Amino acid sequence: MKRPKRNDPCWCNSGKKYKKCHLRSDESGETAPPDTAGGQGRKPTVTAGKISPLLQVPGEIAVPEYAGTGTPGGRGRSCRKESEGEISGMRHAGQIAREVLDTVLAAVEPGITTNALDEIAHHAATSRGAYPSPLNYMGFPKSLCTSVNEVVVHGIPDSRKLLEGDIVNCDVTIYIDGMHGDCSETVPVGRVSREALSLVQVTWECLLMGIDVVRPGQLFSEIGRVIENHAVKHGYSVVREFTGHGIGGTFHMTPYVAHFYEPANKALIEEGMTFTIEPMINSGSPGCRIWPDNWTAVTEDLALSAQFEHTLLVTETGAEILTGGRNPWFLKG
Ligand code: MF3
Ligand code: CO
Ligand code: CO
After folding, report:
1. Which of 155, 262, 312, 330 fits as disulfide partner to 151, beta carbons 3.0 to 4.6 Å?
2. If pLDDT is split at 50, 70 and 90, which confidence band does 21 have?
3. What would the mean pLDDT of 87-108 be, rounded to a whole number?
């Protein structure tokens, strides 16, 4: 990366002038703000906050099978192709998920609580006639997952305020007309370190590279192979405990989609399948620990983790991104 001049736009795409943004930290040789600094013996940057009472869903909104009991099942179907009607339903669900995610991401700024983001997600979904799929899925208490810094996945929105320098993954799933759409994006809170920015960009590239190899007749293991190669090339590691998944009338179903290379997995991708790719990439070791809340997964070494997710439909020649939209924050357009 070439160093900008003082009055040029900063290399980090913040839109600020270089002198107002990363100039000082570049010159001091400082590489990361103290709260995300490298090395072992890191301290957590995120601790559990207060979880607010359950939000209600208007009575006219159709709910998935687990909404009352918390237990998924019922119409769970394994690896299958979707019919034409289901496919248009999935397109619709994907686009609503995207709109909700964009609404949430636009609200991310220093000082906002993750609980406030959850309220925004909840309202954005229900005002569009959709059920926020995480709500009471296996007892999950919120409508959105917010995973900050060393939180890998399934962070529960709470009273913690986002701080300048954090990165936060917002993961939106919605259920509408019998179908789920699932997508997530990691965004910076104000100015973030060069390390954080690089991790987020490489994680995005991992998702794109995984999507790129999707076509009928392809091995599922190819997705994990290209993702793992790219992550490792940049000195990062791939989380193994959580995977992508089949999605449709059921939130999570087969196939499971590993983001690391599994040569023994001989399953083939077929036209008409709908599944997610959602790589979680760690800047340190790949291992995770789960908090006592039984949801929040954090990196075992407390190093940063990032994630992006799309829901895909396998077409005759490749993949249609059902949750597609504008580029992520670090790309133009
Ligand atoms: N959206 C997540 C995924 O990508 C799942 C969240 S499940 C929840 O699969 F219960 F934590 F919401
Ligand atoms: Co998913
Ligand atoms: Co998701």
Report:
1. 155
2. confident
3. 98
pTM over 0.85: yes
Q: Is residue 89 part of a domain?
A: yes
Let me know: does 192 contact 330? Beta carbons within 8 Å.
Answer: no
Could you write out the DSSP letters of every residue in 112-129? -BHHHHHHHHHHHHHTTT
The answer to whether residue 176 sits within a structural domain is yes
**What total number of domains does the chain contain?**
1
Ligand number nearest CA of 185 is: 3
Residues with CB under 5 Å of ion ligand 2 are 182, 276
Tens digit of each residue's pLDDT (9 = 90 or more) over 103-126: 999 999 999 999 999 999 999 999
Domain of 139, in residue numbers: 85-331
Ligand 1: lining residues by beta carbon, under 6 Å? 134, 137-138, 140, 145, 154, 171, 173, 182, 278, 309
Report the separation in Å between the CA atom of 145 and the middle of ligand 1, taken as the mean of its atom positions: 7
297 has which bridge partners?
A: 153, 290
Question: For residue 251, which phi and psi values (nearest 5 degrees)?
Answer: -65, -55
State the DSSP string of 258-296: -SS--TT---B--TT-EEEE--EEESS-S-EEE-TTS--
CB atoms within 10 A of CB 315: 14
Looking at per-residue pLDDT, the higher value among 17 and 242 belongs to 242
Q: Residue 28 is inside which H or E element, if any?
A: helix 23-28
Determine the angle formed by the axes of helices 194-212 and 221-233, rounding to 10 degrees: 150
- Going by pLDDT thresholds of 50, 70 and 90, the confidence category of residue 55 is very high
Instruction: Name the nearest CA neighbour of 62 among 177, 225, 199, 171.
Output: 177
Residue 153 · residue 242 · CB < 8 Å: yes
pLDDT tens for each residue of 187-198: 999 999 999 999
The pLDDT score that the predictor gives to residue 5 is 79
Residues 288, 297: Cα–Cα separation, whole Å: 6
Inside any domain, residue 267? yes
CATH number of the domain within which 122 lies: 3.90.230.10
212 within domain boundaries: yes
For residues 282 and 303, the answer to whether their CB atoms sit within 8 Å is yes
